[in-house]
């Protein structure tokens, strides 16, 4: 229903839309400006019952948004992380992810749809012409803007239509709770867990390839061997988390080639054990150059000198590789004499 279907006596008085119009081009105005077309009133401008229907529609959308937000929180709490459901045509997917995405999408869509429907059916849609003005704002302009703001607030009918206002405020208040609830997935602060690994005094160094404890005779000069702590099972559920902190690379140098005093003290007959985890972004280091005793991270080319405390000599890594203090037990096997004395891997915000 448009203004053309409504008797003229029911229509509001037309406003002047010819402001600034130039119907015929002349020397002063070389381009004709026909002005704005006649304004066509919406049915909501004429019929209060139609306006009420629009108000109820917008309020319904805001209410659905609130319910969807509550559903988001309920799904986050109630649905197990490992539960899956079959959704055609996607197949088997995570029930939690599907529920969270669906409810959050509905909540945001209904807020946007409600706001658009409100603006298109209830707010003023009169065309206005405003002449260009200087960049600086004059006192008169500021006063005009203030009056226009008050007029716009009045025309939005926010104060008059309490149901619409309250449901909108409820939807806008509840939807941010989805982000607050998601913070729960960040988990507790790591505390000191990042500072400790499975290494401890007496833990044997086990060859990653043979799964056998290592003896000094197993490490040849110039060779690179990878090791893990005794008792770490590759089939264990937490294997990846633990090996990411405890992986070792073992190199045997000539004792005379070791420049760092602490490195020499923490070694055994030239055998040094360093963390395999690069201190840049945590990539595993696997490239060793025998003549220079340098190891290279393949991800971003950070280079460490294993003969000088594994200090950084090239690349983006921020600090040297942590060294593990090792020795030999009564049975002749290499063992750790302590855990790493500093966190392995990339630097983090609470690093001491």
UniProtKB/TrEMBL annotation:
Disordered: annotated segments: 1-38
SUPFAM superfamilies xref list: ISP domain (SSF50022)
Membrane topology: Multi-pass membrane protein
Subcellular location: Cell membrane
Segments crossing the lipid bilayer: 58-79, 99-119, 163-183
Keywords carried by this UniProt record: 2Fe-2S, Cell membrane, Disulfide bond, Electron transport, Iron, Iron-sulfur, Membrane, Metal-binding, Oxidoreductase, Respiratory chain, Transmembrane, Transmembrane helix, Transport
Source organism, top-level taxon: Bacteria
Keyword Iron-sulfur: yes
Family that this chain belongs to: Belongs to the Rieske iron-sulfur protein family.
Protein name, as recorded: Cytochrome bc1 complex Rieske iron-sulfur subunit
Domain Rieske: 240-335
Main subcellular location: membrane
Protein function: Iron-sulfur subunit of the cytochrome bc1 complex, an essential component of the respiratory electron transport chain required for ATP synthesis. The bc1 complex catalyzes the oxidation of menaquinol and the reduction of cytochrome c in the respiratory chain. The bc1 complex operates through a Q-cycle mechanism that couples electron transfer to generation of the proton gradient that drives ATP synthesis.
């Amino acid at each position: 229903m448009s203004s053309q279907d409504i008797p003229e006596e029911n229509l509001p008085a037309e406003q002047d839309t010819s402001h600034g119009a130039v119907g015929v081009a002349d020397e002063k105005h070389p381009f004709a400006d026909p002005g704005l077309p006649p304004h066509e009133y919406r049915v909501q401008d004429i019929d209060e019952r139609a306006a009420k229907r629009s108000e109820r529609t917008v309020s319904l959308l805001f209410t659905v948004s609130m319910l969807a937000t509550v559903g988001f929180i309920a799904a986050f709490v109630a649905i197990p992380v490992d539960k899956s459901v079959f959704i055609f045509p996607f197949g088997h997917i995570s029930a939690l992810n599907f529920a969270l995405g669906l409810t959050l999408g509905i909540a945001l869509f209904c807020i946007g749809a409600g706001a658009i429907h409100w603006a298109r059916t209830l707010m003023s849609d009169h065309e206005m012409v405003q002449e260009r003005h200087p960049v600086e704002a004059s006192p008169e302009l500021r006063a005009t803007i203030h009056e226009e703001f008050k007029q716009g607030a009045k025309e939005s009918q926010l104060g008059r239509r309490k149901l619409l206002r309250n449901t909108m405020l409820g939807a806008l208040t509840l939807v941010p709770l989805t982000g607050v609830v998601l913070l729960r997935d960040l988990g507790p602060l790591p505390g000191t867990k990042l500072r400790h690994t499975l290494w401890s005094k007496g833990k044997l160094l086990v060859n990653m390839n043979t799964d056998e404890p290592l003896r000094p005779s197993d490490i040849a000069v110039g060779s690179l061997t990878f090791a893990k702590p005794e008792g770490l099972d590759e089939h264990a559920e937490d294997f990846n988390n633990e090996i990411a902190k405890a992986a070792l690379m073992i190199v045997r140098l000539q004792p005379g080639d070791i420049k760092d005093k602490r490195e020499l003290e923490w070694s055994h007959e030239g055998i040094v054990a360093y963390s395999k985890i690069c201190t840049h972004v945590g990539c595993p280091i696997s490239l060793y150059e025998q003549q220079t005793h340098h190891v290279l991270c393949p991800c971003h080319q950070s280079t460490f000198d294993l003969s000088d405390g594994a200090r950084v000599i090239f690349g983006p890594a921020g600090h040297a590789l942590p060294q593990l203090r090792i020795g030999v037990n009564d049975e002749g096997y290499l063992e750790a004499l302590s855990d790493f004395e500093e966190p392995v891997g990339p630097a983090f915000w609470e690093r001491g």
